[in-house]
Amino acid sequence: MDTIFALASAHGRAGVAVLRISGPHSHWAAGQLCALPPVRQAGLRVLRHGGETLDQGLVLAFSAPNSFTGEDAVELHLHGSIAVVAKVSEVLAQMEGLRLADAGEFTRRAMDNGHLDLTQVEGLADLIDAESESQRKQALQVLSGAIAEKVAPWRADLLRAAALIEATIDFADEDVPIDVAPEVLGLLCRVKEDLVAEQARTGAATAIREGFEVAIVGAPNVGKSTLLNALAQREAAITSDIAGTTRDVIEVRMHIAGLLVTLLDTAGLRDSDDVVESIGIARAKQRAEASDLRIFLLQQPGEAFDVASRPDDILRYAKSDVSTVAMPSVSGKTGAGVEDLLAEIASKLAPKTSSAGVFSRQRHLLALTTAEIALGKAINTLPRASVMPEVIATEIRVALNALEGILGHIGVEDLLGEIFSSFCIGK
Amino acid sequence: MKQFDVIVVGGGHAGAEAAAAAARMGSRTALVTLRCDAIGVMSCNPAIGGLGKGHLVREIDAFDGIMGEAADRAGIQFRLLNRRKGPAVQGPRTQADRKLYRQAIQALLAEYESLTILQAEVASLIIGSHRVGGIVLADGSHIKADAVIITAGTFLNGVIHVGDQQRAGGRVGDAPSILLAQQLADLDLQRGRLKTGTPPRLDGRTINWSVLDSQPGDDTPTMFSFLNSAPFVPQISCGITQTNARTHDIVRHNLGRSAMYGGHISGVGPRYCPSIEDKVVRFADKDHHQIFLEPEGLDDPTVYPNGISTSLPADVQHQYVRSILGLESVVITQPGYAIEYDYFDPRGLDPALQVKAMSGLFFAGQINGTTGYEEAAAQGLVAGLNAALLATGRPLVTLSRSESYIGVMIDDLTTHGVTEPYRMFTSRAEYRLALRADNADQRLTETAIALGCVSEKRTNSYSTKAGLLSAAQSLLSQTAFSPRELQAAGVEVSADGARRSAYDVLAFEGVTPEHAARLVPDFASFDQAIQLQTACDALYVQYIQRQDRDIQRLRADEALAIPAGFDYSGIPGLSNELTQKLKRVLPVNIFQASKIEGMTPAALLLLISHVRRPSRRLMA
Ligand SMILES: Cc1cc2nc3c(=O)[nH]c(=O)nc-3n(C[C@H](O)[C@H](O)[C@H](O)COP(=O)(O)OP(=O)(O)OC[C@H]3O[C@@H](n4cnc5c(N)ncnc54)[C@H](O)[C@@H]3O)c2cc1C
Fold first, then answer.
1. Is the residue at B41 inside a domain?
2. Which is it for strands B159-162 and B213-215: parallel, antiparallel or unpaired?
3. What does R_g of chain A's alpha carbons equal in angstroms?
């Protein structure tokens, strides 16, 4: 196994640069540069090579398996100079058995050594990519094992339920509890309810990860694109006085109060004979229906659109610079009311984030749904447990596999272990 | 010097089945065992089959093996376990008359003309470079062969414990096998120590049967062999009694004198076969445990008390047994004992049960860390078939988890190894609904015929049956009925307008072949066995289809072979620990690799990409 090293902090000038070395030769390699401090204790050291002083910095050694990668590892906290980092890297690269790490190689080693599960690797990737504060929090949660933590009690309950059922099958002749159905029912229902609740929360979790969609909806030429540009503080949409300028949906990503938001500028809603515009209008309605929050830009009170309204819709009267029809109003041109509007968007999105779960990916949702459906079938079959236990067991297994699939594997040994620890089996 | 194609060492259940399989394949086969008259001896309980185990016996029978036939001939109390549950979890079982069983096995083996039986101790193997060439007997004579199957059971360095007394032994009345154990230990194979135990045997004439409940066999006995339909000998009942607080007190007070609790045994015993000591200690809150009193034979007074295996000293056994209802003045004819023995880590075997590091050498049975007659025989079958294939230069055969319990067992053994004696359970089979005892022949007999190990009689009987089953199924699938027509025939179905065939509705609960015959009158012309089998086949169709996708994925992984000699150290990014595990397990395909403990999706992807790489390096 090679020993690998790489800059673990961002490239370029910075206060501190962290060089990470991981693998069997890491202690030896760092030991060539300085006297290693005791494991897990930072030591201030002068790094020297071939009589030349390279830098002075903090040195931290970890020994396997108690490091990020699970291998022996050393961190060199150097002065964040491009030249220093380049020089130390060059010296390390020349050492026997050391090489520069490939992209993601530290993480892969951590996963191979069982230090991270699949979801944590996803969390790490998200953390590194995080743009907004809420994304960062979410990714950190996942990285710290929040998903495994969620799945663990479900898995335990389902294993117990499966073991109860399996015991009535494989040890039919022996002293096992005869009517396991009530306990199994309790376990399955509990997990199923959790799964239903958790699915409802994946929408918000996905929105945090991928951004909330906020659509601006209104009649043609009411100033939607101007408002979009004002909110985004840049010229994202082409504006003109000609009604119907925006024909497709324009998306702008921005941050509002720590949340990643995708603002949607949509085609003005009106009846149109123009084929291209009609398609744009249909798409606008569709996106408005699907978005997390809508801002309706109105010309007059009572104006209605062919889009079902929701309680949290935001209403604004348009172009307050030219006509003050009613309050509250906003003008993209002068910026009047823009701050207000941003504040309202933030206050309407905030409650959506508080309910967010940790399952944010499509594959998570799919697994939750698969498991829930299977548990539903198992629960329906439970009254017939004494004659069809194998069918119930199959459904529980489908659910377990789906949930386990989020993290890793399930083995039959886990199941037998549960059986044997609970009952006196055997003649 | 004598010369054979295949030599089988050991005449236990693995050895007998291995020798029969190799001989059926046409190989000149020798079975060498310590005592010819002990071939087919049941070391422990006088019963064949059960849950999971019954599946194995049916699968052996599907390959025209001998265990099912012998059990039918010797069966004195047939019971289909889980009879009231679905067919996927029903397991045929029988009490077997010990003497009749032994005689049946010996008679069946005698029918094979290409099989020679020799009584001798095998002292060592003739070994060439990474190849086995034959055996050396204790008297120094050499016998050559292309393939050797070792089925030495509990005999390798066997030590018998009764209380704090120990002596060397392969089982009561037999010497252990030390010379062979020594040589096998010198091969580069991982060795471990396991233990198992057996209860005292009782004199049935001293049991007060009149105060005990009894358990009869089934009214319509279910046979093991697909070729048999009724028992050969008269049927008996078993007695039922139980331990009580006094029994538990006696055991508890003497725990220090038990071989296991007194610290005399280091081997690991099976969790599912706890001794009475285990039961009293681990399940202290239970005030009684059930005991089945199983007669060992029609003209044998010996009774096997199922449920109280022990390694307590003989005087304590005497005391606690006499504390039990009905056994107040019982006489023990042979005390219970525990036995410790060597096994070899089955991860050193490929899925054909051939030792990876030694071409031509096969291991089968308890030597691989399993327990039970059926588990042993099933491995014997696979080793016997493959030894014969190897001797004739044909490609070896392996069974998949998706087609048989045998495949499940061998895959479990060769990928995970064992931490306790391995026994079959239906819950080990993830495709349990498809792998039923009732359809073992449909799953396997065609493969067996293609291999050439099936007699003409069975080939004919199977093809007739298969033809009838497919005719019955297509007859029932032909016509679709409206909900009203179905309701008129007594089938409970919602009026959802969907049309369903009689085959479809056989999957509904409560729908029987009679309902099907009401819908499709011609179905009644099939005999009852075919009708019932058609109903079993129809029952889980929906689930089995759902599993098919998984099975295809499994088969694809199984098909992605990792070439022998693949160099794992050449893969950057693969952790040290996993590399070591891979080097030890030497998985033969990606499926096996995927199940190595600690294997991650990322590591697996890495491995797949390297296995597929044309320029991969092989170890020198
Ligand atoms: C005390 C005891 C308790 C058991 N309890 C249970 C139980 O509770 N449940 C259960 O399922 N199973 C139990 N078993 C296990 C069951 O008996 C075995 O699993 C099964 O018989 C193994 O079959 P086998 O063919 O592998 O080995 P065996 O039946 O042990 O046969 C080994 C054969 O190898 C021969 N042999 C050995 N060495 C040599 C040599 N050097 N040369 C020539 N021949 C040799 C012997 O003569 C013998 O014929 C018990 C076994 C024992 C001994």
1. yes
2. unpaired
3. 29
pLDDT exceeds cutoff 90 at B404: yes
Q: B137 and B249, same structural domain?
A: no
Residue to mutate (ligand 1; options B7, B34, B66; most atoms within 8 A of CB): B34
Looking at the partner chain, which of A170, A394, A397 has a beta carbon nearest the beta carbon of B425?
A170
Where does ligand 1 bind, in terms of residues with CB under 6 Å? B 9-15, 32-35, 38, 43-45, 121-122, 151-155, 170-171, 177, 180, 196-198, 273, 339, 365-366, 371-373, 376
Whether residue B518 has pLDDT greater than 90: yes
For residue B334, how far is its CA from the centre of ligand 1 (angstroms)? Answer: 18
Name the residue in chain A with its Cα closest to that of B427: A166
The reply to whether B618 falls in a domain is: no
Peptide bond into A351 cis (omega under 30): no
Find the helix packing angle between B13-24 and B373-391, rounded to 10°. 30
User: Which residue in B has a C-alpha nearest to residue A397's C-alpha?
Assistant: B430
- A172 and B51 within 8 Å at the Cβ level: the answer is yes
The pLDDT tens digits for B189-244 are 888 889 888 899 999 999 999 999 999 999 999 999 999 999 999 999 999 999 99
Q: Do B616 and B610 contact (CB within 8 A), yes or no?
A: yes
Question: By C-alpha distance, which of B24, B42, B102 is closest to B384?
Answer: B24
Average pLDDT value for residue range A4-32: 86
The verdict on whether omega for the bond into residue B295 sits within 30 degrees of 0, i.e. cis, is no
Distance CA B437, CA B92 (A): 8
Q: Are residues B78 and B176 in the same domain?
A: yes
Q: Tell me how far apart the alpha carbons of residues A319 and A353 are, in angstroms, rounded to a whole number.
A: 31
| Long-range residue pairs from B583-587, CB within 8 A, at least 24 positions apart, any chain | B584/B347, B585/B347, B585/B415, B586/B356, B587/B415, B587/B562
Q: Does B416 touch chain A (CB under 8 A)?
A: yes
Distance B35 CA to ligand 1 centre (A): 13
Across chain A, mean pLDDT equals 82
Residue A409 has pLDDT above 60, yes or no: no
Inter-chain residue contact B85 with A425, CB threshold 8 Å: no
Q: With an 8 Å Cβ cutoff, are B86 and A391 in contact? A: yes
The answer to whether B576 contacts A24, with C-beta atoms less than 8 Å apart, is: yes
Which CATH topology does A213-354 take?
Rossmann fold (3.40.50)
- Asked if B531 and B513 touch (Cβ cutoff 8 Å), the reply is yes
Instruction: Give the distance (Å) from ligand 1 centre to CA of residue B154.
Output: 5
- For residue A114, the tally of other CB atoms under 10 A from its CB is 17
Mean per-residue pLDDT for A378-396?
Answer: 92
For residue B29, what are the β-bridge partners?
B6, B115
B169, B292 Cβ separation under 8 angstroms: no
Confidence at B619, pLDDT banded by 50, 70, 90: very low
Q: What pLDDT sits at residue B186?
A: 78
Average pLDDT of the residues in A35-57: 91
User: pLDDT class for A70, splitting at 50, 70, 90?
Assistant: confident
- Ligand 1 centroid vs B15 CA: distance in angstroms? 10
Sequence-distant (6+) residues with CB within 8 A of A83 are none
pLDDT at residue B393 in the model: 94
Nearest CA to CA, how far is B24 from chain A (Å)? 33
- Taking the model in full, what pTM does it have? 0.78
pLDDT of A426 reads 34
Q: Residue B591 sits in a domain of what CATH number? A: 1.10.150.570
What is the DSSP-derived secondary structure letter of residue A212?
Answer: E
For residue B47, the model assigns a pLDDT of 95
Residue B532 lies in a domain: yes
Given a cut of 70, whether residue B353 has pLDDT beyond it is yes
Task: Compute the count of residue pairs across chains A and B with CB atoms less than 8 Å apart.
Answer: 127
Domain count, chain B: 4
Q: Does domain A146-207+361-408 have CATH number 1.20.120.430?
A: yes
